[in-house]
Design a protein that fits this description.
With 245 residues, the chain is mainly α. Helix content is 58%, strand content 7%.
């Protein structure tokens, strides 16, 4: 069961199942979601920036001069701006096979992912995570998490300065919810397609996309998520291969 849960989360954008945030269940919370939908892009970006600071404090960040730091720097060399998003990269030293991007340009790659994947495969993952940001998926995740959290009530009277009103513990909880959010099948497919175009724009090896997904299937199995809307990595690889032909 533990392995199946891990595969489910990996298929849903490499997320850890024990901390997964069920967006579908929260989407039914009508009133709060309507209120959260008024968050501006600037507010979302500010909240992401504060949340990423909290995550950096909670995790062991690999030094820039470390083996992990040097490798990630090599992988993303020249990648300072992507589609108008100013990017900043760090490695979290953790066995977790994970990566995420946020609306302020934060991109974090876990050492567990670097241990399992080639440079080309990591580039696909980074493109995929940036895709979730550029396509508005992470904004929706932030809106949903904000609507569902106690932090929303704490920030209710703060006007536009929402991020500043959140306590350190609230920011930590909020960040965890966003980092481990699960995306729908269509969102995952759209982020895969974005990543293929990302690889093309930067003249990266396109085979890194299906290779990364097939590696996940080989490592953890190709079972789909416990949520039927989340596709298995092997099935996503099949779709990606069609995109790069």
């Amino acid at each position: 069961m533990k392995q199946l849960a891990l595969v489910a989360a990996l298929a849903a954008c490499l997320a850890a199942p024990a901390q997964a945030f069920n967006l579908n269940s929260v989407l039914s919370a009508g009133t709060d979601l309507v209120k959260s939908a008024t968050l501006s892009d600037g507010e979302v970006k500010g909240m992401a920036a504060e949340a990423s600071k909290s995550m950096d404090k909670q995790n062991k960040v690999a030094a820039a001069g470390s083996a992990y730091g040097k490798r990630l720097n090599k992988i993303v060399q020249g990648l300072g701006n992507e589609d108008g998003l100013q990017l900043n990269f760090k490695v979290y030293q953790s066995k977790e096979v994970n990566a995420f991007a946020m609306a302020d340009g934060t991109v974090r790659v876990y050492s567990g992912l670097l241990d399992k994947m080639t440079d080309d495969e990591v580039r696909y993952v980074i493109g995929h995570e940036i895709g979730h940001v550029k396509l508005g998926h992470t904004k929706k995740a932030i809106q949903v998490a904000y609507a569902a959290s106690a932090a929303r009530k704490a920030a209710a009277g703060s006007g536009n300065n929402i991020a500043a009103s959140l306590s350190e513990s609230e920011l930590g909880d909020f960040a965890e919810q966003i980092v481990h959010a699960q995306f729908s099948q269509s969102q995952e497919s759209d982020a895969d397609a974005y990543s293929v175009e990302f690889l093309k724009r930067h003249n990266y090896n396109l085979q890194g996309a299906p290779a990364a997904l097939r590696k996940l299937a080989a490592l953890f199995g190709n079972e789909g998520s416990v949520l039927a809307s989340h596709p298995a990595p092997g099935d996503r690889a099949d779709k990606v291969e069609k995109l790069i032909k």
